Amino acid sequence: ADQSLLNSSYDIARELFASYNEHFADYWKNKTGQTVEIRQSHGGSSRQAQAIIQGLRADVVTYNQVTDVDVLHERGNLLPADWREQLPNASSPYYSTMAYLVRKGNPKNIQNWDDLAREDVSSVFPNPKTSGNGRYTYLAAYGYAQQVFGDDQAAIDAFVRTFLNRVAVFDTGGRGATTTFVERGIGDVLLTFESEVNNIIAEYPDHGFEVVVPKVSFLAEFPVAVVERHAERNGNLELARAYLEELYSEDAQRLLAGFNYRVHNETVQAEFADQFPPLELLTIEQIAGSWESAMTEHFANGGKLDQLQRR
Amino acid sequence: MRTASHLRVGDQPWVKWSLISLALTLVGLLLVVPLVAIFAQAFSGGLQTYVANLTDYYTLRAIGLTLFVAALTVPINLVFGVFLAWLVTRFEFPGRKLLITLIDIPFAVSPVVAGLLYLLLYGSNGWLGGWLMDQDIQLMFSWPGILMVTVFVTCPFVARELIPLMQQQGREEEEAGVTLGASGWQLFRRVTLPNIQWALIYGVVLTNARAVGEFGAVSVVSGNIRGETNTLPLHVELLYQDYNVVGAFTSASLLAGIALLTLLVKSFIEWRQMRQRAALSEEEV
Amino acid sequence: MSLAITSAISLNPGKRVLPGFALSLGISLLFISLILLLPITGLVVQTAGMSWQEYWAVISDPRVVASYRVTLWAAAFASLFNGLVGLLLAWVLVRYEFPGKRIVDALMDLPFALPTAVAGITLSALFAENGWYGSILAEVGVKVSYTPLGIIVAMSFTSLPFVVRTVQPVLEDLAAEDEEAGISMGGSDMTVFRRVVFPSLWPALMTGIALSFTRSLGEFGAVIFIAGNMPYVSEITSLMIFIRLQEFDYAAASAIASVVLLASLLLLFAINLWQAHYLRRIHGR
Amino acid sequence: MSIQVENISKRFGKFQALEPLSLEIPDGQLIGLLGPSGSGKTTLLRIIAGLETADTGRILFHGEDVTRVHVRDRRVGFVFQHYALFRHMTVAQNIAFGLEVMPKASRPGAAEIRKRVSDLLEMVQLGHLATRYPAQLSGGQKQRVALARALAMQPQVLLLDEPFGALDAKVRKDLRRWLRSLHDELHFTSVFVTHDQEEALELSDQVVVMSAGRIEQVDTPQTLYAQPDSRFVLGFLGHINVLQGEIQAGRLSQGDAWIGLPESTLPVGEAQCYLRPHEVRLQLTPEAHAHLPLRISAVSLIGAEVRIELEADGWQSPEPWEVGISHAQYNEWQPMRGDRCYAVPDVGHLFTSEAGEPELIQWHKKKTQKSVERSVLQQAVGA
Amino acid sequence: MSIQVENISKRFGKFQALEPLSLEIPDGQLIGLLGPSGSGKTTLLRIIAGLETADTGRILFHGEDVTRVHVRDRRVGFVFQHYALFRHMTVAQNIAFGLEVMPKASRPGAAEIRKRVSDLLEMVQLGHLATRYPAQLSGGQKQRVALARALAMQPQVLLLDEPFGALDAKVRKDLRRWLRSLHDELHFTSVFVTHDQEEALELSDQVVVMSAGRIEQVDTPQTLYAQPDSRFVLGFLGHINVLQGEIQAGRLSQGDAWIGLPESTLPVGEAQCYLRPHEVRLQLTPEAHAHLPLRISAVSLIGAEVRIELEADGWQSPEPWEVGISHAQYNEWQPMRGDRCYAVPDVGHLFTSEAGEPELIQWHKKKTQKSVERSVLQQAVGA
Ligand SMILES: Nc1ncnc2c1ncn2[C@@H]1O[C@H](COP(=O)(O)OP(=O)(O)OP(=O)(O)O)[C@@H](O)[C@H]1O
Ligand SMILES: Nc1ncnc2c1ncn2[C@@H]1O[C@H](COP(=O)(O)OP(=O)(O)OP(=O)(O)O)[C@@H](O)[C@H]1O
Ligand SMILES: [Mg+2]
Ligand SMILES: [Mg+2]
């Protein structure tokens, strides 16, 4: 290969980027005549970011959490502070939301967030401390409570505490939670990305799982960015930018939608309209003001999450 | 040794057989069934899937890396283990006991912490890492880092096998060799090595098993680059995270296979040793 | 230490009869410094960056403290269980002849050789409510996977060989005459076991249990898959370190790691001291 | 308590460790089992104790069949060769063990046990070492603890397997003496195993000589020494000088060497004459009844007599000869390595057939003559 | 090659294993280092070999200082106490080792090595065992292999650490004999360590007696035995009968026991008289110059003389006495345990001050009188 590019990504995006990399390699060959090899690193996205800070020389990052990209700026000064402005849609070429996977026939009749606080329902989702997936779930529930209880902070806290108490298992990652729910038969509902829920159903066709998308949920962005310092050093800056920009192309968007992600491209949106029911998406700004404050108020050591989990 | 005809505790048949059955049951439940479970999962997709999973490009790369790291780790620890054992069993010097204790540290350190230790030192935020970065030397998140933590985790095995044996054998034979005019290398090759060879091989076998199977420490410093810094145990995790349960267990079964092979080699070594000893004592005058 | 050693060398240049002192000392010290000591200083430096209050706040965080409790209890139960089972297995392997003995003996090392992640995945599959064991246990109302019990299971599995392998050689060396003496003086089998055999095994058994305990304290890979990881209930300390790492809080991670490391080292050290004392009494000198 | 061994035999696999053998041990005696390594001494002792089961035969204690009685219930004291002290117990705890494991019903109270232990410690003169551990004792002290431990239960039979085997010559001698006096005092029946002739002869009331799983001879030490039944016993009880030759014309001869035989009806053919070192004198000239030329190969000064080692000169001897001379004679004669001299026997043991008992030959009937002869020699030497 | 040890001393940590000591070993001699355990024999031998470095002093071989010469280059043959044979090599390989590791330049060819090895095997009479491994040999055979191995390089100095320590009495005697003849044949300078007096006296040209890191006496065996320099040497060379008492009025007395002292200017005060077993006779009545009442505690029949063990009767002796009588006298007298008798010394060693050399006391100047006395005793006993 003439050039090689290292993409540091989250752990469940392997198939996605395996397809996309093929697409991009063709695209790049057509465009420049050069062959390009894309190397992939997958793992929990916080750990991935950490590896980059500690010296993993990735050119681009494609994560499922904004904070993990932010940290590359804050801790390593590896990319500019305004990285979100560099690509359309706040550098998030696709997005998803939190959905429920319930057992065949939805026996507990789970429809919305308040069902998850019911005493007879036990849920499964990953540990918000170790997994972005878990963090989104937590924020979605919290946002829902804010909507319901308004300014009544005590009621909000009480709701979220109950919600957290109904959790049967806190796996460290999304995949572990899925295994727990599907293979170990623990819990009545699995909370994860909508994109994942559909993958799971495809993976286990004979379990008869059903998807429930709550009326209100959280906008889960999938930020991408060029790690400029590294890309520059590797002489890949141009290639890296092209790699991310191409994600916004119609073909790529179609490919992403094929992996159950919601996309912004309207043509593609229309094509996949049945698959993605409309719903109210809460943003981080609505819930916590910003990712930064969400991290310090909710997830930091001793923050809201810790308080609500304390017994 | 005439154990057979001694009057010993617990030799009544009913005690003996109930203890044996209890032990066999426990071994079955604790060790055999998990082993069987791994293979059962691996073959749950049929033989073809198994072969397909095994010959997957990234799996092959992971096998390659794992074997590569093991192939480097073993000689490094072999050399170190032999020198250390030679040092502490053949010489008296202040600090000797401390040295013997130090070598046990990796047993006491959690693998994750071990990885962390290296990351803190050689990562680009660590003290050496910054300098290394400037020199454009990448240790962490590439195979040298994996090699380093693997060496750390496995370094006690060879030394621990050799030290008690060499202590027990004493230094008389080597002294005899010296009085007969042997040089250092001749002494080691012709006198010491033949006496410790089985212990050495056993140490190597254990080192290899652990090197191949190390997960915690490696996962911290690997960087998880598919096909590059993904060792077999990490590959198992990756596949598992990726809904490829059968694939994950295929790789796991490979590791279990290596483990079994290792144990087999080890038993074979022990068996040979025992036979040798028995043969010798039989002919004893 | 190294100062003391070098001064000892320079004091008496021609002192050593066997060759290779300087070479083996050099290589051993270099290796130990690079592979063992340097990374540990990294940890010390990281924690040294914190003030005492910060350090204390991190290590005494209630959730972390809860994890100590869980880890300690689980490790204690696991190592006790291993003490019992390990003693039984060692006894059966040394004392009795039965078909398949060599295979059982070889299998003993399986947990060392099997990657911990594989062990974790397999155990959680076996003990899940729909797994082979879990479904049987569920009928009697026992849940293992995703409860603290699961932690114990994972810990015992990964550290079982320590007890077996430390007790086995001692048991082999026990003189038959001791038991015969006990029996000929009128002791019943149980009495002789309790009063004659067991006290001789005791130091080795304790060492095995202690090793098993320290190993359990640090176990990560096998435990997280089966633990359930509920805050305050089934979170282990290694996971807390891992979480701190996820939060990019290296200092805190190091601080917690230092607690585990210190605890393990202290335990090992204490066990060594105690054993040395006990053995001195038994072996004289 | 008397012990009867009836027809006991034992095989290990294909190896017959004990041929069927019987033995009668009267009450209160101290019996030595003597024999070379592998002769089955330990096996027999262990069978008597009940630590091993015989293939055939019976063991009777005081007329009562105990063959099927477990060791635990035979109440014999057994002292193991390497002491088999419990390493993790102090001396006192070791001695108390047997008492403490008695069934509750018959077990003495704690105070009584303490008292008995301290009495035993006094008896073996180790009162000051009660709290030591075995590893902190010397070999002799260990052996005494082992004895005290075996005696704690007041057994009527005491069995000892090579009790002094692992000890220094000096300590060995002390302990031997001490065991003898202990036995005289306490009057139990004791059987001890040894491969040391000196020990067996010095210590035992009766010595049982064993060889290859069979009993060769049972006798008092004196009889055994004076009238050995067989070549084996004779050879086993000390150094033996051998003349192997052919009987012809009233002489046993080989090469330059011969001895005259008293006119008895001896068959012509191969024969050996065995001579004990003290039954032979050395002279510078041969005597009328013997011509045994020898050359001195070593002189050993130590002990009561000076031991002279000699090589056959002009004939063949499988092993060097040994003759003891007094220090006085040594000072007079000053024999040196390489000197030639002649051996003159006073008494000899003649073996003619392969097995069979020896014939005692006495060249000088009157013993008192010997010292006269001796001074004659000294004059001859002095010249 | 002569060996000079000059002012050698050695300490291990705080423990002074060797006080500064010097020793001269003439070419071609066979020297025994004799002393109790821990006296520093092995340490001295290892220093001579170069296996240990002395703290002070020099070692000279043939006048040449070799103190700084590495063992490898001293070319001494060293035989280790436990043989230290290479257990993974056959007998022949063991013996060939020293030749095979020689530097290429001086190393003999393969054929030459084979030849030398087979010669050595012949010499130690082990030709038929060339392909055995050490574990398949008996102790005595191992020892001979160890010797052959050490001799393969034709050293001019042969050092042996307790060469016979681990062997049976019988094998030991054979090997001792064999070593002596080997030494006489090959004429190297040999030093061997032993703690067995008999061995040292029998084998050595000169004996070096060591105690607590010091050299007590260096002498030929005869002189050493006849004129020991010190209490230690006297006591170490065999059993000693001691009368510990007070000198008063020309007598050394304690309790009922006394011996008359020749009229010399002896100071009044504590003193001990040491008597060797063969320097004492037993009688049924006391003699004019000595009154030493004893009671027989044991009679040992074995060996050249009958050994009588006695206890002090009416006085105190730290250890029992031992006296040897001839079998003839034994048969006449038939002494039994418990019998009373009197000891009569002929020669004694009197120690007056704590250290210092003993004074030789002779009650009977003319040695030849002894046998006369003896027959007198026999008549007395016979009565
Ligand atoms: N358990 C056993 N299995 C096989 N052979 C045995 C066993 N015990 C003893 N023997 C054999 O029986 C023979 C007699 O053994 P035993 O121990 O009684 O001899 P011993 O006279 O006590 O010899 P030693 O003086 O060496 O102790 C020996 O040849 C020994 O090898
Ligand atoms: N390496 C060592 N370290 C410490 N002390 C030692 C060492 N080697 C010997 N010693 C001590 O030096 C003293 C003399 O030892 P050495 O081995 O020379 O005695 P020995 O006369 O050969 O005794 P033995 O007859 O028991 O072999 C002993 O007290 C011994 O404990
Ligand atoms: Mg025996
Ligand atoms: Mg020594």
TrEMBL record, chain B:
<feature type="transmembrane region" description="Helical">
    <location>
        <begin position="245"/>
        <end position="265"/>
    </location>
</feature>
<dbReference type="GO" id="GO:0005886">
    <property type="term" value="C:plasma membrane"/>
</dbReference>
<dbReference type="InterPro" id="IPR000515">
    <property type="entry name" value="MetI-like"/>
</dbReference>
<feature type="transmembrane region" description="Helical">
    <location>
        <begin position="98"/>
        <end position="121"/>
    </location>
</feature>
<feature type="transmembrane region" description="Helical">
    <location>
        <begin position="141"/>
        <end position="159"/>
    </location>
</feature>
<dbReference type="GO" id="GO:0015419">
    <property type="term" value="F:ABC-type sulfate transporter activity"/>
</dbReference>
<keyword id="KW-0472">Membrane</keyword>
<keyword id="KW-1133">Transmembrane helix</keyword>
<dbReference type="InterPro" id="IPR005667">
    <property type="entry name" value="Sulph_transpt2"/>
</dbReference>
<comment type="subunit">
    <text>The complex is composed of two ATP-binding proteins (CysA), two transmembrane proteins (CysT and CysW) and a solute-binding protein (CysP).</text>
</comment>
<feature type="domain" description="ABC transmembrane type-1">
    <location>
        <begin position="63"/>
        <end position="270"/>
    </location>
</feature>
<feature type="transmembrane region" description="Helical">
    <location>
        <begin position="20"/>
        <end position="43"/>
    </location>
</feature>
<comment type="function">
    <text>Part of the ABC transporter complex CysAWTP (TC 3.A.1.6.1) involved in sulfate/thiosulfate import. Probably responsible for the translocation of the substrate across the membrane.</text>
</comment>
<feature type="transmembrane region" description="Helical">
    <location>
        <begin position="199"/>
        <end position="225"/>
    </location>
</feature>
<keyword id="KW-0764">Sulfate transport</keyword>
Automatic annotation (TrEMBL), chain C:
<dbReference type="InterPro" id="IPR000515">
    <property type="entry name" value="MetI-like"/>
</dbReference>
<keyword id="KW-1133">Transmembrane helix</keyword>
<feature type="transmembrane region" description="Helical">
    <location>
        <begin position="70"/>
        <end position="94"/>
    </location>
</feature>
<protein>
    <recommendedName>
        <fullName>Sulfate transport system permease protein CysT</fullName>
    </recommendedName>
</protein>
<dbReference type="InterPro" id="IPR035906">
    <property type="entry name" value="MetI-like_sf"/>
</dbReference>
<comment type="function">
    <text>Part of the ABC transporter complex CysAWTP (TC 3.A.1.6.1) involved in sulfate/thiosulfate import. Probably responsible for the translocation of the substrate across the membrane.</text>
</comment>
<keyword id="KW-0472">Membrane</keyword>
<dbReference type="InterPro" id="IPR005667">
    <property type="entry name" value="Sulph_transpt2"/>
</dbReference>
<dbReference type="GO" id="GO:0005886">
    <property type="term" value="C:plasma membrane"/>
</dbReference>
<keyword id="KW-0764">Sulfate transport</keyword>
<keyword id="KW-0813">Transport</keyword>
<dbReference type="InterPro" id="IPR011865">
    <property type="entry name" value="CysT_permease"/>
</dbReference>
<dbReference type="GO" id="GO:0015419">
    <property type="term" value="F:ABC-type sulfate transporter activity"/>
</dbReference>
<comment type="function">
    <text>Part of the ABC transporter complex (TC 3.A.1.6.1) involved in sulfate/thiosulfate import.</text>
</comment>
<feature type="domain" description="ABC transmembrane type-1">
    <location>
        <begin position="68"/>
        <end position="271"/>
    </location>
</feature>
TrEMBL record, chains D, E:
<keyword id="KW-0472">Membrane</keyword>
<dbReference type="InterPro" id="IPR027417">
    <property type="entry name" value="P-loop_NTPase"/>
</dbReference>
<dbReference type="InterPro" id="IPR017871">
    <property type="entry name" value="ABC_transporter-like_CS"/>
</dbReference>
<keyword id="KW-0067">ATP-binding</keyword>
<protein>
    <submittedName>
        <fullName>Sulfate and thiosulfate import ATP-binding protein CysA</fullName>
        <ecNumber>3.6.3.25</ecNumber>
    </submittedName>
</protein>
<keyword id="KW-0764">Sulfate transport</keyword>
<feature type="domain" description="ABC transporter">
    <location>
        <begin position="3"/>
        <end position="237"/>
    </location>
</feature>
<dbReference type="GO" id="GO:0015419">
    <property type="term" value="F:ABC-type sulfate transporter activity"/>
</dbReference>
<dbReference type="InterPro" id="IPR003439">
    <property type="entry name" value="ABC_transporter-like_ATP-bd"/>
</dbReference>
<dbReference type="InterPro" id="IPR008995">
    <property type="entry name" value="Mo/tungstate-bd_C_term_dom"/>
</dbReference>
<keyword id="KW-0378">Hydrolase</keyword>
<dbReference type="InterPro" id="IPR005666">
    <property type="entry name" value="Sulph_transpt1"/>
</dbReference>
<dbReference type="GO" id="GO:0005524">
    <property type="term" value="F:ATP binding"/>
</dbReference>
<keyword id="KW-1278">Translocase</keyword>
<dbReference type="Pfam" id="PF00005">
    <property type="entry name" value="ABC_tran"/>
</dbReference>
